[in-house]
């Protein structure tokens, strides 16, 4: 019986994995002008009646349509977006999109590598641009992602992609942007989400902390020398010390964050970002002083400790933002790939719990772009930046009104059709629904 179930699952999985790829859009060949929409620029500014133009994949015009005059035929295509909203494309950081297709099928799971210290592991070469999950998140405005490995103490190197490509090389926005370190926790929890257990001190914390320190110290010493034999693992850390890569430290507890920052600074790491940061609000002054941003863990969650405010996850972004810390949102955790589509609504929740609406938008646009080091290329609607943007019928941070009519990646008008929308159309036809 179990064998039969396995065979059926394997056949089903192969049928999904071999399904025809949705062809990426062709390079932009005609200039496009979007008129009369409310433009949310991603930097806190709004233009109520906007004119957004782009040519050959780059934004060439961002203006108030009421204050400018355009020559007739200045743009090949004009889209009247009256009553609609224009946004920069949303960015999903710390994501395993394209690294795992079906958790139960080992051959489709490339999110982690054997070993504990793997700075040389490059997640991008395992990225599957043909993943069926990817097409399901674009209709909510998520057009870029940071593809990030998992596992080990140092998981490896992430890269940033746009989500409409034939393969990983076509998808690249920034290759090997940073190395991901899973800092040890100072305590251990037992139990599960449905049956909480006890909390006790991690007796191995000092040892685990020391192992990371020793590794970074050894890597720095190796790079300062002229070794006869090449050590690929140490070679891979060079960007941390010369400022070309960011050290993304995955840590949630106050002590974790403080110890991790101190360790990284002492070893000469130039750029640091905290990923998770559940208790980062307790270290906000330290973060702000050292210009360290936070990619905040999924806010649609329960408080982790019984003495925390019930709404702490929802208001965490505001607590940090009010202290001057640059905050982005990430969505790792249970069922993270399919839940990526909910990223805009995490920002909407932050707005509902005190954060200004346009600042909440920055959590998944400009702020994230800045923390990933791609803010000169994308993250806001500004002249000279990539024309990666979309038009929505309503508020993109509200699941009730976020309905995209058009989306563009580097000026290319992409398809918003998915296998889910196809099935929706099929069954609407079957039951005579409009």
UniProtKB/TrEMBL annotation:
Location of the Amidohydrolase-related domain: 256-406
Domain of life: Bacteria
Keyword Disulfide bond attributed: no
Signal peptide (UniProt feature, chain positions): 1-20
TM stretches of this protein: none
Keywords for this protein: Hydrolase, Signal
Pfam families tied to this protein: Amidohydro_1
Record-linked InterPro entries: Amidohydro-rel, Metal-dep_hydrolase_composite, Metal_Hydrolase, Metallo-dep_Hydrolase
GO molecular function: hydrolase activity, acting on carbon-nitrogen (but not peptide) bonds
Source species of the chain: Flavobacterium bomense
Protein name: Amidohydrolase
């Amino acid at each position: 019986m179990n064998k039969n179930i396995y065979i059926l699952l394997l056949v089903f999985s192969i049928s999904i994995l071999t399904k025809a790829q949705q062809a990426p859009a062709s390079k932009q060949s005609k200039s496009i002008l979007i008129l009369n929409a409310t433009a949310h620029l991603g930097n806190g500014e709004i233009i109520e009646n906007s004119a957004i133009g782009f040519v050959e994949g780059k934004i060439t015009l961002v203006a108030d349509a009421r204050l400018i005059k355009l020559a007739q035929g200045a743009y090949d295509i004009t889209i009247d977006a009256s009553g609609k909203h224009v946004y920069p494309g949303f960015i999903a950081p710390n994501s395993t999109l394209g690294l795992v297709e079906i958790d139960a099928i080992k051959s489709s799971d490339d999110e982690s590598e054997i070993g504990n210290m793997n700075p040389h592991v490059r997640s991008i070469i395992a990225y599957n641009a043909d993943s069926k999950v990817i097409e399901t998140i674009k209709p909510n405005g998520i057009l870029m992602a940071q593809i990030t490995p998992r596992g080990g103490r140092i998981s490896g190197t992430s890269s940033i992609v746009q989500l409409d490509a034939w393969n990983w090389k076509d998808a690249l926005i920034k290759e090997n942007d940073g190395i991901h370190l899973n800092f040890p926790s100072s305590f251990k929890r037992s139990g599960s989400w449905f049956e909480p257990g006890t909390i006790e001190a991690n007796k191995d914390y000092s040892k685990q902390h020391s192992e990371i320190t020793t590794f970074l110290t050894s890597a720095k010493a190796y790079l300062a020398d002229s070794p006869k034999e090449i050590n690929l693992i140490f070679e891979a850390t060079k960007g941390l010390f010369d400022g070309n890569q960011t050290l993304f430290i995955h840590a949630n507890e106050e002590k974790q964050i403080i110890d991790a920052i101190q360790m990284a600074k002492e070893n000469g790491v130039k750029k640091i970002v905290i990923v998770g940061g559940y208790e980062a609000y307790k270290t906000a002054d330290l973060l702000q002083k050292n210009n360290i941003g936070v990619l905040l863990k999924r806010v649609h969650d329960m408080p982790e400790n019984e003495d925390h405010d019930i709404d702490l996850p929802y208001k965490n972004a505001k607590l940090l933002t009010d202290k001057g810390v640059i905050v982005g949102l990430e969505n790792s955790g249970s069922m993270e790939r399919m839940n990526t589509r909910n990223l805009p609504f995490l920002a909407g929740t932050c707005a509902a719990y005190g954060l200004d609406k346009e600042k909440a938008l920055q959590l998944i646009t400009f702020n994230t772009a800045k923390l990933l080091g791609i803010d000169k290329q994308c993250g806001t609607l500004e002249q000279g930046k990539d024309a990666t943007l979309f038009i929505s019928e309503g508020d993109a941070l509200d699941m009730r009104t976020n309905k995209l009519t058009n989306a563009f990646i580097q000026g290319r008008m992409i398809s918003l059709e998915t296998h889910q929308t196809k099935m929706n159309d099929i069954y609407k036809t079957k039951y005579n629904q409009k």
